[in-house]
Input
Amino acid sequence: MNPPYPSGGILKIVTIICRILLGIPFMIFGANILHPFLRMPIPPPESLQFKFMTVMMPTHWMALVGACQLLGGFLVLLGRTTPLGLVVLGPVLVNILAFHILLENGKDIGLPLVMAALELFLIFAYRGYFAPLMTLQAKPTGSAR
Output
């Protein structure tokens, strides 16, 4: 199996920086969803964003999203569990991007795009762990070949 960090001095440093830049915001915003400590703007009541949130908040869907953000950010920061953290954060990032693109017409998409770029870079940096997933001939473990 590949080493926990990509080989090469500068790539290793860039990878650590990207892990920190991706992991910390997800931990902060995930914790904020679970136990609010940062003030979040409330969208106008007639907006699609408000209607979306009126479904997401009372059903505790956002608590699940916050838990995934917190867990994924923590796993990315640990280093040895970065690939698993990237897998947890991937769907969360897709939904954040979809929210900003589809419900906000691209408004405030800067940070989500940066986070997506960090995620993609880290997937590339840890590509050895993801390569086995890119097969068209997968078989259940233990099955006859």
In short: The chain has a mean pLDDT of 92.
